[in-house]
Design brief:
The protein is mainly alpha-helical. 56% of the residues lie in helices and 10% in strands. The protein is globular, with a radius of gyration of 15 Å.
């Protein structure tokens, strides 16, 4: 499966667009819609030139492929497009390793979709504290997952 425009729009909404490179909360140089690497594999640096929204969209399309691949690889049950999009957004934000070891993935693979929806809300912490942005993002993912 591939992420739909609905899923891409969730990433765009929560990541926001930044034309100039910046340090994300984890201290990694980032640009566009939360991308840390360019399509050619080169890492973003703080010295890179600004990009347009169209360039950011193209970088996002390239970046999201590895997260689509991870969801396609680790999920062993049939998903709806909305479920797939929610899981790709989760992996994009929380990381593939966190998806892979999560109870969220275990519930999905057990076809416990009600339980899986509840798992999103557990991933709202940054530096040990609940963050409003993550609370909102996980709620949006859970709603999309259940839609």
């Amino acid at each position: 499966m591939q992420m739909s425009d609905k899923g891409l729009n969730i990433i765009k909404q929560f990541e926001g667009f930044r034309s100039k490179p910046y340090l994300c909360p984890a201290g990694v140089p980032t640009i566009g819609y939360g991308s840390t690497v360019y399509p050619n594999g080169r890492a973003v640096t703080l010295k890179d030139k600004p990009i347009t929204e169209n360039e950011a969209h193209q970088i996002l399309l390239s970046t999201v492929k590895k997260y689509e691949d991870a969801v396609n690889r680790y999920v062993q049950v049939k998903l709806t497009q909305n479920q797939f999009d929610a899981l790709v957004d989760f992996a994009y934000n929380a990381g593939i390793g966190n998806l892979q070891k999560s109870t969220l993935l275990k519930r999905v693979n057990a076809s416990d979709f009600v339980g899986a929806k509840r798992e999103f809300a557990k991933w709202i912490y940054g530096a040990g504290k609940p963050l409003k942005g993550l609370i909102n993002r996980r709620a949006a993912e859970a709603d999309l997952f259940a839609a």
